[in-house]
Each structure stands twice: as C-alpha cells, then as structure tokens.
Amino acid sequence: MAQPYRRLPRLQSGKREKLLSEDVLYWKRMKQLAIFQEPGNMTSTSFSPVEPYYVASTSSVRLSVFDTLICEPISVYSRFKEAVFGAMFRNDGKLLAVGGREGKVRLFDVQKQGSAGSAPKTPLRVYKAHSSSVYTVVFSCSGKEIVTMASDGSIKIFDISETKSVPLRIIEEAHKDRVRCGAASSISSHIFVSGSYDHLAKVWDAREEGNKPLVCVDHGAPIEAVLLLRGDAVLATAGGTTIKLWDIASGGRLLHTLQNHHKSVTCMCLATNGTRLLSGGLDKKVNVFHTDGAGSYDHLAKVWDAREEGNKPLVCVDHGAPIEAVLLLRGDAVLATAGGTTIKLWDIASGGRLLHTLQNHHKSVTCMCLATNGTRLLSGGLDKKVNVFHTDGAGYALIHSFSMPAPVYTLAISGDDQCMAVGMGNLLAIFRRDIATKHEETIREAKAVGAGLEYSQKIPVAAPTPEQRQRGGVKREVELTAPLAPKLPLGKIDILLRQYKHWKAVDVLFRNRHYWEYNPDMVVAAFMEIYGRKALPFALAGRDAETLRPLLLFLCRYLFKSNYFRTLAIVASTLLEVYAEEQVDANLVKYFHKLNDAIGRELDLQKTLQQTIGALEVLFASSANQTEPKKSDENEFFGEIIILPITLSMKQQLNDDSGVETMPITADVDT
C-alpha cells in the first residue's frame, strides 16, 4: 500500500531541541512496514515472548500467525464455525491459545513453524469451557494452567495436561456483565486479574475460597484492557477515553489517570522491559506513556487466587465503566484497568486502593500491553491513538503518542520492543523500529542530519458536533455518515516537491528572501530531499542571475555550519560541476570568487587549528614527562620562609636606647 507524502523534515535547534527527550527519539524510529487486510474487524493480537517474535491475530473466523522478519503470514487457521477471540501465546512461545464465540478454547502448537503451512492445523486441545463467548484466555506464569473468561461473567481454570474439559476451579458470577479482558501475574501462578463491562477490575487468588477477589477497583467505564505493571504492583485499566493506574498493594488506590485519547481506548500493552505503556484507541492514536490484569463490562476488576475455594476474589475494584483490558504491573503489586476513556491503576496490597487515573484518551480505551520489561504501558483506543506511559516512578507521564489511520482495537509489542502490531478495523499494521545510525546517537546529531524528529504538536481538540435544522424545525445534533479523510497541511515548497517540481521549488526558495535568508532550515531540508531523489543537478541547472546570486550568498554564509555542511557541500560541488563549462554572467563571477574566498579562509583556519593542536600536544607531552620536585628541593633557591610578627604600639614613645624617634600614632581607643 502506497504511503502518503511526508512533509520535509525540519532541522531544529535551540529551545525546541531541548523539548525533545530520548524517549521521543526512541519511539519515533518505530515505522510501519506492512499492512494486511483481514476478513473482519481485528479482535486480538499477541506477540510470542521469545524469538523470532511471531505475532498472532484473530479476525472473524481466521487465526493468523505472521513472521515479523519477512512480514508474511506463515500459518492461517480458518477451520472455525464461528468467530474467534483472545489469541495468547504461552511464556515459552510454543503454545497458542484462542477463545471463540462457540465457548470453546483451543490450544495450537506453533513450535515448529518456519514456513507457510508448516504448522499442524489441528489443535492440541479443545476445551468446551463455557456456554457463552470466550473473549479472554490467559496462561499462568508456570504455563501449566489456562484461565478462561466468558461473557456470562464466569471464570474457569483448566490444567492443560488434561485432555478432558474438566476445570480445576470454577468462579461463577465473578462479574455481573461480560468479562472482556484478563491478565496473569508474572510472579505467582495463582494470581490473575479479570476486567468486565460492569466497570470493575478484580484481582483473584486461585487458592482462596469463594468469589471474593483480592482487589476490586471501579474504573468508571466499561473496561477494554487491563495490565499488570511494576512487578505486578500496579494495575492499569483502560476504559472510555481514560487509562487509570491502581496500587494493588494498598488495596486498589488510584495512582494516576491518563486522559490522552479523544475516543475510547481499546487496547494496552507494555514495552521497553515494562517501562513504557502503549495504548490504542478509536481516535487513530497509539500513545506511549511512562509506567516506571482482567476487565469486565460490569465496571469491576478482580484479582483471583486459583488456590482459594469459592467465588470470592482477593481484590475487587470498580473502574466506573465497562472494563476492556486489565494488566498487572510492578511484580503484581499494581493492577491497571482500562474502560471508558480512562485507565486506572490500583494498589492490590492495600485492597484495591486507587493510585492513579490516566485520562489521555478522548474515546474508549480498548486495549493495553506492557513494553520495555514492564516499565512502559501502552494503550490503544477508539480515538485512533496509541499512548505510551511511564510505569517506573515517573508519575505515569505520557511519553509518546502514535496517530493511527483508524480506531485501534488490539495492540501487542514484541519482548525486545522491536516490533509492534496494531489491529484497526479489518486491518493489521506491523511496525518495526529503525536502527539508530551513528548520526542519531544524540538528539542534537539526529536533527543535524535531518532525521525529522519533530517535537510532537499539541493534540487537536475534538471537532464540534454538527447540527442540522430543517425548515420550520429546531436544531438537532446529527452524526456524520462518512468520516472526512484527514488532510495534511502542506506549505508551498512541500506541494511543489510532492508534485516532483524540483526546479520550481529551488526557484521559489531563492526568489523569496524569506526562505534563503531567514529560514535556512527549510532550504537545507529541501536540498536533502531533492538530493535523495537524485534530481539535484537538474534542479540547479539553467538558472539566471536572480537565483544564482542568492544561492551563492547562501553557500558563503551557511556552507561551514556544522549541521548544514554535509548537505551544502554536496550542493556546492554539484553547482560547480553544472556551471564549470557554461558561460556565466560577468556579474556572477565575483560571487563565485566570494565562495572561493570563503573556502580558502576555512582551509586556512583548519591549518591554523591543526598547528595549534600540534603545539598543544607537544606541551602536554613535555609536561607529562616532567616529574614533581622533591620535598628536600623546595627551598633550594630561596631557603625556608619565616614569618615573624610585628608589634604595633598605640602609644607615643621614644626609643632612648637607640636615640631614634618613632612616628606618633594617634588613635581614639575606647577603654
């Protein structure tokens, strides 16, 4: 699929350069590689925790597994009678679990995948788990049990070594509404989280009896995604347009609310070893937050212990909206629930105390995931955003935000943060991080070579609701039937370059003093783009004195600027080659001489600097060879210094013995 024209990169410096952080540099290198069209809306995506980091996606009655290295599907499972949901890899990447509308849970062996169609199409296990749809399937950290969560609000735990559909544990009426998301602890094989459309996220201990969770938090909106952050110490919930972070240790205390999405947040995931939280939403955005679970439509998130009897979760929190996703953070100490437009973080240890609420989505949060070893929380929503948050004690700040072309339903990221999969409608987009070149080691050098890492602009406010009034009636709010395609605002130079009018673009740059004298960044960026298209000789040839004179003056002034030299040196060399054999106007000869003089001065300066460097090296070498003087020779020339006191008298007196009259000293002394 062809990509739209991108505006020219701006070589920024000064105050705006300081606004950029290393995180912006890190996440800006995530570029879209491929996009695949699926038979229906994307319902889930999951990355294998181990190399080669396969990504699995579900859409309608198809389960697909893609190789992110070649960006091609290697296995497609389509022998399902009804839609499938909730694809999830085991920790070792060997097994893939998926739920479905039939209420069945299937396990597939993906260990021997290497080429298209090499994996067996028949599942290893088929469990008739529920009588209603199963949206969420999670593996325990040990990989021996699987937890299934259904639309009827029930939760079941199965032993994957057993072939029969007999659950180890059943939690009836765990939620009052559909359980939409879940997460398992990375530390304990008995702790897991459920999130529901009843606005609650609950932390459960399977060892506890009854239906009482460890922690229960109210997100305040239907929860679309949950995540556990910071070693399962923080719970992130996504629902509505917000992401909320909860302190699990304090019982579900709200830590922070992220409100960076304009529409519903649909998904979340972690990146950068869990230090970044990515969120996607229906506002076409993928946001990246600092950071450094299960969800249900009954607004409750619950933490369960599979060892406990009964249907009582360890923690139950009320998100306040239907929960779409849950996560466990900080060593299972914090529960994150996503529902409505918020993501909430709860302290599990304190019984579900709310730690924080993330309100960075403007529409419903649909998904969450962890990145960067659990230090980043990613959330996606219906506002077409994927947000990345801190989870490592930085106040759950929003680090970065990705804009997507469509609402985000599912979100996943590889364990090494190199690949990211985003499900949008019936599209699956795969992103891969670019390799940092030697010129992108620092932010200053990255912009010096025109890396195009512009500081993120302010998020535009939502458009006003359109109104319509018929003749003789009153105004009524109406909904647009067809969304307007976003238009990229382009300047005059960008428009000409998009039309491949290179000669005209250079002509406009040097006929207008505003560009070549007051905006050199724009001129250099245009030359970089033209040179990349191998059209620089054609853009410089056939020019008159009105454009060659300012071009030569521009080179004399900015040729030896450190951030412009690489590009302008190529421009100057090409210009001399083009006009070497042509008859140049006599008035232009003196400007070529000025350019020659400028180059000569720079060469002289370089020679002087080399001489200075050589002299300094000689001084440094001679000083290093000299030894420190011995202590016995310190007073060799002048001897030992002795300081004696001089006595001053405040009275007038005569020295009768020596016959010398002293000078009178008058002083008023208060006695």
Automatic annotation (TrEMBL):
Pfam entry (one): WD40
Transmembrane segments: none
Occurrences of domain U3 small nucleolar RNA-associated protein 15 C-terminal (ranges): 490-619
Keyword annotations: Nucleus, Repeat, rRNA processing, WD repeat
Cellular component annotations (GO), alphabetically ordered: nucleolus
Domain of life: Eukaryota
GO BP, sorted A to Z: positive regulation of transcription by RNA polymerase I; rRNA processing
Subcellular location: Nucleus, Nucleolus
WD repeats: 127-168
Main location: nucleus
CDD domains in the cross-refs: WD40
rRNA processing as UniProt keyword: yes
Function noted in UniProt: Ribosome biogenesis factor. Involved in nucleolar processing of pre-18S ribosomal RNA. Required for optimal pre-ribosomal RNA transcription by RNA polymerase I. Part of the small subunit (SSU) processome, first precursor of the small eukaryotic ribosomal subunit. During the assembly of the SSU processome in the nucleolus, many ribosome biogenesis factors, an RNA chaperone and ribosomal proteins associate with the nascent pre-rRNA and work in concert to generate RNA folding, modifications, rearrangements and cleavage as well as targeted degradation of pre-ribosomal RNA by the RNA exosome.
Alphabetized PANTHER family for the sequence: U3 SMALL NUCLEOLAR RNA-ASSOCIATED PROTEIN 15 HOMOLOG, UTP15 U3 SMALL NUCLEOLAR RNA-ASSOCIATED PROTEIN 15 FAMILY MEMBER
Protein name per the record: U3 small nucleolar RNA-associated protein 15 homolog
Organism: Toxocara canis
